[in-house]
Amino acid sequence: MATSEYRLSFERPIYELEARRDKLEKIAQDNAEVRAEIRRLNREIAEMKRRVYSQLKPWETVEVARHPDRPQTTDYLELVFDEFVELHGDKCFGDDRALRTGWAKLDAYRVMVIGHQKGKTVKERTACYFGCAHPEGYRKAIAKMKLAAKFHLPVICLIDTPGAYPGIGAEERGQHQVIAESMFEMSRLPTPVICVVIGEGGSGGALAIGVGDRVAVLEHAYYSVISPEGCAGILWKSNSFKEQAAAALKMTAKDLKAFGLIDAVLPEPLGGAHRDHHQMARELKTYLRNSLRELLAQPIDQLLEARYQKFRRMGRWLEAPVSPPSVSGNGKPAEGVASEAAAVEPARS
Questions:
Q1: Whole-angstrom Cα distance, residue 168 to residue 85?
Q2: For residue 22, how many other CB atoms are within 10 A of its CB?
Q3: Are 11 and 52 a contacting pair, CB within 8 Å?
Q4: Angle, helix 175-187 to helix 300-312, in steps of 10 degrees
Q5: Distance CA 177, CA 171 (A)
Q6: Less Cβ around it within 10 Å: N or C end of the chain?
Q7: What is the pLDDT of residue 109?
Q8: How far is 283 from 267, CA to CA, in rounded Å?
């Protein structure tokens, strides 16, 4: 379903085969031999996609997550939900177009949808700040979440952002504070919350709407405390080390599931979600429907306790007993005996 001329370097063999197939389709008509060759090429293309996308490196996953043809929140609003009524503004400063909020209907379920929007045209991307929300965007999200809880309706968050907007104006209006407030409010929101990373899940901008009872990541999306370029700039002082940073961050869906940081990995169509929006939408809709059915059957107090414990369990650490240091005759610690507390400081990951 790709609509642009954007091509990822590792996809070149796929596009070469597709170009050969398309050329043959123009002259096929009723030629049995040509149609047999087209069928053979289709099988070869499918196998090539399967092989290439099963061996993606972490940085290549980042490239797929940023593909301009990848479905965005507005695409899913059209393909997954039956109705959508957008709600605007934070009642304080303005309406942030990087975060869309509104009532929606998913089969028999009425829900509140909150999602990042990057934009597709240059004009829309500029208006959306490429999916980087300002404080007013997160304040809008908090207000709409509370509104959903008031009417006992679930909240669905679609995450796709490089991070919160880093400008001076955003910081002056309390960017860091509102991100923390959003995470706090989501942790105790008395209604089911489902979060899905559909593309980029960058830093606090993603986590601000990422605290939920169910957190899923699309197969070729990523979820990280920082972008690979940002990490490379801090550790290596150059973003030319972005591939090494991407590998070190362990931010792919497969890694996150292995660490127990997410609940599910949603499989993407062969060749990535940007190749088939409808199939990806069907997969997402199935996951949302099943999760809603499961979560709505639970009492709210039980739901909140499970959400709390879910995030408390994240992370690993080591603990060891600390014995008192040896003391010499002058009452001072014996030579060579440093504070053992430093040696057994909990090692966290």
A1: 32
A2: 11
A3: yes
A4: 130
A5: 9
A6: C
A7: 95
A8: 8
What is the token pair recorded at 201?
Answer: 């899940």
- Token code pair at residue 192: 């089911």
Q: Is residue 160 within 8 Å of 198, Cβ to Cβ?
A: yes
**CB neighbours of 284 closer than 8 A, spacing ≥ 6?**
76, 80, 196, 198, 266
The single-letter code of the amino acid at 205 is: G
pTM of the model: 0.84
Task: Say whether pLDDT at 337 is over 50.
Answer: no
Whether the CB-CB separation of 46 and 269 falls below 8 Å is answered with: no
The pLDDT of residue 33: 80
Find residue 264's DSSP bridge partners.
Answer: 216
How sure is the predictor about 161, in pLDDT bands with cuts at 50, 70 and 90?
Answer: very high
Cα atoms in the Cβ-side hemisphere of radius 13 Å centred on 45? 18
pLDDT digit string, tens, across residues 218-235: 999 999 999 999 999 999
Whole-number percent of the chain with pLDDT over 90: 67
Average confidence (pLDDT) over 150-162: 96
Print the SS3 string covering the chain. CCCCCCCCHHHHHHHHHHHHHHHHHHHCCCCHHHHHHHHHHHHHHHHHHHHHHHCCCHHHHHHHHCCCCCCCHHHHHHHCCCEEEEECCCCCCCCCCCEEEEEEEECCEEEEEEEECCCCCHHHHHHHHHHCCCHHHHHHHHHHHHHHHHCCCCEEEEEEECCCCCCHHHHHCCHHHHHHHHHHHHHCCCCCEEEEEEEEEEHHHHHCCCCCCEEEEECCCEEECCCHHHHHHHHCCCHHHHHHHHHHHCCEHHHHHHCCCCCEEECCCCCCHHHCHHHHHHHHHHHHHHHHHHHHCCCHHHHHHHHHHHHHCCCCCCCCCCCCCCECCCCCECCCCCCHHHHCCCCCC
